[in-house]
């Protein structure tokens, strides 16, 4: 009888150890998943810009959104003559110029406002990663550029309305690398 009880106890003990190990694996897995989701959320949240204010043309530059590093990178890119020259019908002083900085899953400008008929120039500087700037309704897009590189696009905003612009690289658009182009009558 004593031997049967001892074997039964040993069997129960082994099963409990297996059960605890299995539950511990599940618990550790759940903790790792929770930490990964939290880290991803904090990374995306930290990279996003909380400013949803409309950005006006360069007369009110985005001083509060550009860091000293972005200025240095922009100067380096211009010194390397990476900004191509464009022939346009509108004189440069009649263009609406916007400087947009692309970082991971974020554009520095959340909104661009122009009038219908304006000639618009968007200068994209990639501050992190590989990006472009696209607005489908005007068939306008910059070239894809890597870190510290720039590309520009010039187009005429000939339709009034609100249009989404985005980065077409990988899943950047899905991850929130978008903005709004508002063309007013």
Write a structural description.
The protein is of the alpha/beta class and 185 residues long. The chain is 31% helix and 25% strand. It folds into two domains: 47 residues; 134 residues, Cupredoxins -  blue copper proteins (Immunoglobulin-like, Sandwich), CATH 2.60.40.420. It starts with a helix and ends with a strand. The strands form three sheets. The protein has a four-stranded mixed beta sheet, with helices on one face. It has a three-stranded mixed beta sheet with strand order 3-9-8, with no helix packed on it. Strands 5-6 form a two-stranded antiparallel ribbon. It is rod-shaped, with a radius of gyration of 27 Å.
At a glance:
Helix content is 31%, strand content 25%.
Question: Sheet with the most strands?
Answer: 4 strands, mixed
Rounded average pLDDT: 76
Computed CA radius of gyration, to the nearest angstrom: 27 Å
Low-confidence stretches: 48-73, 75-88
Assign the CATH class of the largest domain. Mainly Beta
Number of helices: 2
Ends: how far apart? 95 Å
How many individual β-strands? 9
């Amino acid at each position: 009888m004593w031997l049967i009880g001892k074997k039964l106890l040993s069997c129960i003990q082994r099963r409990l150890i297996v059960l605890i190990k299995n539950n511990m694996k599940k618990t550790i897995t759940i903790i790792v998943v929770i930490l990964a989701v939290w880290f991803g959320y904090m990374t995306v949240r930290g990279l996003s810009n909380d400013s949803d204010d409309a950005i006006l043309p360069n007369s009110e530059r985005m001083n509060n959104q550009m860091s000293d590093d972005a200025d240095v990178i922009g100067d380096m890119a211009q010194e390397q003559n990476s900004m191509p020259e464009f022939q346009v019908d509108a004189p440069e002083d009649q263009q609406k110029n916007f400087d947009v900085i692309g970082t991971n899953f974020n554009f520095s400008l959340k909104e661009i406002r122009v009038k219908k008929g304006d000639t618009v120039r968007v200068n994209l500087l990639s501050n992190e990663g590989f990006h472009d700037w696209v607005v489908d309704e005007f068939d306008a897009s910059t070239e894809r550029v890597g870190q510290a590189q720039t590309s520009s696009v010039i187009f005429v905003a000939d339709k009034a309305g609100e249009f989404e612009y985005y980065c077409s690289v990988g899943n950047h658009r899905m991850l929130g690398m978008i903005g709004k182009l508002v063309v007013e009558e």
